[in-house]
Design a protein that fits this description.
elongated, about 140 residues, single chain, 2 helices
């Protein structure tokens, strides 16, 4: 007689195989300097303008704190520097070398989903969430 004649034994063997396969561990690679990046929505190489905006708190008051955004079509994506591979200083140095009012750079970026303000201690935490940008590399 073969295993085909013992359906219960087949079920038990399949159950054991399924449980053992589901117990494998997942290996993760974290990019940038921030330990808990948001989930990656998409990775891209883009040429886009960098826009500076003054921070507006929940009460609607504009502050002196300047934030940076990547402008894509009709949406501006907040740049989260604590997860990026570049600093604000490096970005400003590149922007200073571009003539004209529109300061566009070619960038390797990831657009992620999550909390914007979790690592920025320069102003009141707003608990803003949504899509944001992480700059992996400035290409041009």
């Amino acid at each position: 007689m073969t295993l085909y004649h013992y359906p219960f034994l087949n079920f038990v063997l399949l159950l054991i195989a399924g449980v053992s396969l589901s117990c494998s561990t997942k290996k993760e690679t974290v990019l940038g300097v921030y330990d808990d990046p948001g989930p990656v929505v998409h990775h891209a190489v883009i040429k886009a303008p960098i826009v500076k905006k003054n921070f507006v708190n929940k009460a609607g008051k504009t502050t002196d704190h300047v934030e940076y955004y990547i402008r894509q079509s009709i949406q501006d994506y907040y740049i989260k520097f604590c997860e990026s591979n570049i600093s604000i200083k490096e970005l400003n140095e590149k922007l200073e070398n571009i003539e004209g009012d529109i300061k566009a750079l070619q960038l390797e970026v990831e657009f992620r989903e999550g909390e914007w303000d979790i690592c920025d201690e320069n102003h009141d935490v707003q608990s803003r969430i949504g899509e944001y940008a992480v700059i992996l590399k400035i290409l041009k």
